[in-house]
Design brief:
With 460 residues, this protein is α/β, with parallel strands linked by helices. The chain has a domain of 217 residues: Rossmann fold. 45% of the residues lie in helices and 15% in strands. The chain has a six-stranded mixed sheet with strand order 3-4-14-9-10-13, with helices on both faces. The chain has a five-stranded parallel sheet with strand order 8-5-6-7-15, with helices on both faces. Strands 1-2 form a two-stranded antiparallel sheet. Helix 4 packs across helix 5, helix 5 packs across helix 10 and helix 10 packs across helix 11. It is globular, with a radius of gyration of 20 Å. The chain binds pyridoxal-5'-phosphate (PLP) and the ligand N[C@@H](CCOP(=O)(O)O)C(=O)O. The site of the ligand N[C@@H](CCOP(=O)(O)O)C(=O)O has 13 residues, from helix 6.
Length: 460
């Protein structure tokens, strides 16, 4: 499988190169040159298989010869061995035709673990083989950072620097990043919001001299391997509800558009998905785009679902690439417009295609709190605010197909909001019970590229 940049000007790479490279050298994102197909029989054959075997079958065509079959199977086994549920990503029924896909059974209690645990194993195998060392720099609104630190802490071939927006992540999220003791992990509290952090990471990748000097690698959903690993659970969920014989819809709490793009990938591969529903909080740029065709940035308003406080939705670029017939120059132009003017308008053709694949909805702060309460009272499930954005939007978007909402984080990561909503303060699992007592280690930095690059090179 070859990987091409959404902006059309970077060299084509194989899977291993795309995984270790992160952002393309033309500023674009890598995508597979074509979508591998799974037939109805291939999909039907996934029924009843362990999560790890489904993961192998779905991802193998993308990974090609990077890992032998035996090696790849071992990598997948190791990645999910630490999950606290045998199904890895179990489904729970919450209504006659409504389901939650629980993605928070990994070590840091959010869906990011599903991909990050796998990437950690893939990086380790690949870097050991080549003897290389890399510097991972990531941006987080809370969950990617803790998952990355957990996956890479203590590994000899990587240093990990995570930029998070100072004061804008939950205490649990912050402590998950600032309390690990391994000296290859570095939590950086940056003045600004998540968009500032993500822009800084992309600027670092676009500073080619710095990038080459420190051997920069990325584990945000910039990295194709992240998105790929997330496509797997769309298959396990849909097959458990009767796919390929029956179509299934998904509602995805959305910020950086990585998770829902993984659903789109599954659909492109042949999974019979009916609707893909984008659920946003009050930072609703994607919902507004679907409604009007204008993709317009507004300031980020901090919310009780902080991981989705995003206006520059990185992976939307990957979708645009398909919506514009994979014309890299058109995407480069749209991205320039977004950077310069804070907005662009979709062509009518692109908007029609977008609406043909996706629906969208938003939940205000009040609606999110009310939804947590409603779910607790009517289903007995105490859900996190991100998931609540999803279930609220899912209810409004429901058609006749079964509706699966992605439960992207454990409620205990956001105890204040959950308690405010429903009066129940969710507990962390016993293995994390002393999180609030552990000493923290972080560096506060301004949101300036030069200061960050200096800090990183000085630390290495
Ligand atoms: C808990 C949670 N839910 C939803 C999202 C949104 O996912 P995505 O950025 O892939 O759209 C995030 C952050 O990415 C998150 O951490
Ligand atoms: N919500 C995310 C934002 C970064 O998303 P990513 O999928 O691009 O890594 C977070 O929790 O950090």
């Amino acid at each position: 499988m070859r990987y091409i940049s959404t902006r059309g000007q970077a060299p084509e790479l194989n899977f291993e190169e795309a995984m270790l490279t992160g952002l393309a050298r033309d500023g674009g994102l890598y995508v597979p040159a074509e979508w591998p197909q799974m037939s109805a029989d291939d999909i039907a054959a996934l029924a009843g298989l362990p999560y790890e075997e489904v993961a192998f079958r779905v991802m193998k065509p993308f990974v090609d010869e990077t890992f032998s079959d035996a090696e790849f199977r071992e990598i997948i086994q190791r990645a999910y061995a630490g999950f606290d549920h045998a199904a890895r990503c179990p489904m729970v029924q919450t209504g006659p035709n409504d389901w939650l896909l629980e993605l928070h059974h990994g070590p840091t209690l959010a869906f990011k673990d599903v991909a990050m645990q796998l990437i950690g194993q893939m990086f380790e195998t690949s870097l050991k083989r080549s003897g290389q060392r890399v510097t991972i720099v990531g941006a987080t609104s809370g969950d990617t950072g803790s998952a990355a630190i957990e996956a890479f802490r203590g590994l000899s071939s990587v240093d990990v620097f995570i930029l998070y927006p100072h004061g804008r992540v939950s205490e649990v999220q912050r402590r998950q990043m600032t309390t690990p003791v391994e000296d290859n992990v570095h939590a950086l509290a940056v003045d600004g919001d998540f968009d500032t952090c993500q822009a800084l990471v992309k600027d670092m990748f676009n500073d080619l001299e710095f990038r080459d000097r420190v051997r920069l690698a990325g584990v945000n959903s910039i990295n194709w391997a992240r998105v790929l690993a997330q496509a797997v659970y769309f298959f396990t969920a849909a097959v458990s509800l009767g796919a390929p014989a029956r179509k299934v819809s998904f509602t995805v709490p959305t910020g950086n558009f990585g998770d829902i793009f993984a659903g789109y990938v599954a659909k492109r591969m042949g999974l019979p998905i009916d609707r893909l529903v984008i659920a946003t909080n009050q930072n609703d740029i994607l919902h507004r785009t679907l409604q009007s065709g204008a993709h317009e940035k507004e300031g980020v308003a901090p919310s009780i679902s902080p991981s989705m406080d995003i206006q520059v939705s990185s992976n939307f670029e990957r979708l645009l690439f398909d919506l514009y017939d994979r014309e890299g120059s058109a995407i480069a132009q749209l991205m320039d417009e977004l950077k310069e003017n804070g907005q662009f308008t979709l062509s009518q053709g692109a908007l029609d295609r977008l609406r043909a694949e996706f629906d969208s909805g938003r939940a205000s702060e009040e609606e999110t709190l009310a939804e947590i309460r409603l779910m607790a009272e009517t289903t007995g499930h105490v859900i996190c605010p991100h998931c609540a954005v999803g279930t609220k939007v899912a209810r409004e978007a429901h058609g006749s197909a079964p509706m699966v909402t992605l439960a992207t984080a454990h409620a205990a990561k956001f105890p204040d909001a959950v308690e405010q909503a429903c009066g129940i303060r969710p507990d962390l699992p016993p293995r994390m019970a002393d999180l609030y007592e552990r000493p923290e280690r972080l560096t506060r930095l301004p949101g300036e590229l030069s200061a960050l690059e200096k800090h990183i090179e000085g630390t290495l």
